[in-house]
Automatic annotation (TrEMBL):
This is ATP synthase subunit b, chloroplastic. The keyword Chaperone does not apply. The gene is atpF. One of its GO terms (cellular component) is proton-transporting ATP synthase complex. Residues 64-98 form a coiled coil. The keyword Membrane applies.
Length: 184
């Protein structure tokens, strides 16, 4: 094995006159050597390079397809979210409107109830005032009647003597007797 590796190593040390070898000086090489090397590289490297480029192209196309799918799903989800948002906003507006109308209804009911209560209180107040007025009038009448009766009795007692008193009683008895005869 050592002989084989020595022969490769010794290739670089061959004398350049009349022998075969690689010229590593780029400026000294002739265009034929370069065209041969390029031809070999293109012939053998074309398949590998086209495979690499095709693989890279496929990966890029797959990435684009995946991105488009993800974009489509994201747009779809965004539209669903927007639709849900619109629906929630409409429901919120409806609740707000219903809430405002319910509040307004309750406010009107409260106002009407308060008005009715005030009306009832006003009626009770008027009835109480009327009752108290009647009671006060009746008390005044009773006092006036009592005072008038006491005054009349006092006047009668001072003005009447026994004779006048007996005459008044007999006139009243005669009147009652006459009324009894008329009614029979």
């Amino acid at each position: 094995m050592k002989n084989v590796t020595d022969s490769f190593v010794s290739l670089g040390h061959w004398p350049s006159a009349g022998s075969f070898g690689f010229n590593t000086d780029i400026l000294a090489t002739n265009p034929i050597n370069l065209s041969v090397v390029l031809g070999v590289l293109i012939f053998f490297g074309k398949g590998v390079l086209s495979d690499l480029l095709d693989n890279r192209k496929q990966r890029i196309l797959n990435a684009i397809r995946n991105s488009e799918e993800l974009r489509g799903r994201a747009i779809e989800q965004l539209e669903k979210a927007r639709a849900r948002l619109r629906k929630v906003k409409m429901e919120a507006d409806q609740y707000r409107v219903n809430g405002y109308s319910e509040i307004e209804r309750e406010r009107l009911n409260l106002i009407n109830s308060t008005y009715k209560t005030l009306e009832q209180l006003e009626n009770y107040k008027n009835e109480t005032i009327h009752f108290e007025q009647q009671r006060a009038i009746n008390q005044v009448r009773q006092r006036v009647f009592q005072q008038a009766l006491q005054g009349a009795l006092g006047t009668l007692n001072t003005c009447l003597n026994n004779e006048l008193h007996l005459r008044t009683i007999s006139v009243n008895i005669d009147m009652l007797g006459a009324m009894n005869k008329i009614t029979d």
